[in-house]
Amino acid sequence: MHLDWTALGQVAAVSVGVTVAVVVVFAFGVLGLARLEGAREQPGGTSSALGLTQAALCFLACAAVVTYGIYLIVPQFH
Amino acid sequence: MDHITFLVAVVIVTALAFDFTNGFHDTANAMATSIATGALAPRTAVLISGVLNVAGAFLSTEVAKTISGGIVDDTLVSPGMIFAGLVGAILWNLLTWLVGLPSSSSHALFGGLIGAVWVGAGSHGVNFDKVVEKVLVPAVASPLVAGVAALIATYLAYRLTDRARKDSVTKGFRIGQIASASLVSLAHGTNDAQKTMGVITLTLISAGALGHDAGPPLWVIASAGLAIGLGTYLGGWRIIRTMGKGLTEIQSPQGFAAETASTTIILTSAHLGFALSTTQVASGSILGAGLGRRLAEVRWGVAGRMAIAWMVTLPAAALVGGLAASVVQNGGDLGTAVVALVGAALAAGIVAVSRRNPVHAHNVNDAHEVSIRTEPPAKVGTAA
User: Taking the model in full, what pTM does it have?
Assistant: First the structure.
């Protein structure tokens, strides 16, 4: 029996890293969304456009990760 | 069609039945947290998950070349042993469903096969170091890694969105959950449906109905996909309740963090060739997400019972598998029929007991406990 500790460590490190990164970026997207919705109720600030940009960029990044995930799942793409 | 003997036909039907229990046992892995946070309505959630499981089954061309991945010596495995192993796996899946415990369907299948091969071919047919490598190590490591990832992610998600508008945050993460839960379902379909396809294909090959190295015929792919999809759609509501409500009270940022952790770990380990249980990964993620918000939120009693169920899964399924194998071996076709009938009767009995206190789409979020006693579940939570 041989256990591939390096591969196990890789899975652990990559998993934790990717999870945290995706959730943090998504959280920033949600923050942008919250700012956008807050700005809608009190118009007249620049935070509306800023919020929208922040949300769009963050969700776009998450969508890219999801696309890569689908690519990994579907063997026909390899 | 001369090659399709009585035994082969029974194996195919049993394999599809296992596939079905696999589907409904594992709906919770992808959808429990989405249902608990209200990101998806219960019926919608199981429909999406079911459809994605069928899609996943058709997408996975890489059908398992071995039944067990080397845990048992595949050259010694006869259709009778496969049948006995499947019976063990199905009964264990149903029993854990009855008490609302998420347990690994793949471990149940391995356990059933180990028991059947041990009795049918002797202990040399079982590769015990492979059992350690492929079952024990991932079973300890994967929930741990999933838990740590979900814990850190949950903690950061709450810290970052602390001062933002609560309703926007909840809504945002709920939408995210739909995507993350869908990915888990798709990954599940590509992984688990192909196990059943592998079992049926190898049985057909060993019976001479298919040539060596033949891929699964279309009807095998379609029936395996439909069985797992239908099982998923019917939904193991008892397990969904335990995972969505029982372990911890889940909010949408936690649900998103947990599902992201599950997806990432399933994908990275599949990429590097680790076999692991979706169930254990998902449970670990949910626990971690519970801890990330507040330590006291986790019901350790439930977590403990789950851990015990995981440890017992393999030996318990092995016991039933071994028992069934000895009957099949000594009784021939008659023994096979007896095992099939007894298995079906036990399964019907378990379903009948579940009816005394049913959990379904309408009451899945009402309580956090799954009881097999006859009291209405809604009263249990409010008694204190």
Answer: 0.88
